[in-house]
Automatic annotation (TrEMBL):
Domain (HTH merR-type) ranges: 1-69
Annotated Pfam families: MerR, MerR-DNA-bind
Name under which the protein is recorded: Transcriptional regulator
GO cellular component: cytoplasm
Cellular compartments annotated: Cytoplasm
A GO BP entry: positive regulation of DNA-templated transcription
Organism: Advenella faeciporci
Segments forming a coiled coil: 81-108
Residue ranges crossing the lipid bilayer per the database entry: none
SMART domains in UniProt: HTH_MERR
Amino acid sequence: MNIGEAAKQTGISAKMIRYYEDIGLIHPVHRSDSGYRQYAEKDLHALHFIRRSRDLGFSVPQIQELLALWNDKGRASADVKQITQQHIEALQNKIQQLQAMVDTLQHLNRHCSGDQRPDCPILEDLGQTTHCSG
């Protein structure tokens, strides 16, 4: 099948499929005599794997590692578990950071009268230089 059909079946745009091939995430596929990429069932399977991995938030380097392990029938499941555990910890850290942002914004929002007056605690807080971390 051609790249458009592969994109439709996997939910990955043709542009991203070409990108994944360019960076070596997937192997270059067979090309027809006229130069069109031709995707086989095994290629679609790899693309589905990538799509699911991306949906779960894995980075491209992590997906490269997971694909290598997926293709290595002699792999140790401990290697896969280690990658996912690191990813879980990173996600949990990101959740904590996002929750802290929500808490701060809710606090600021509660203290804003939201009326026609110009004074606004939200803008005052955003303008403070004491919050800068860089």
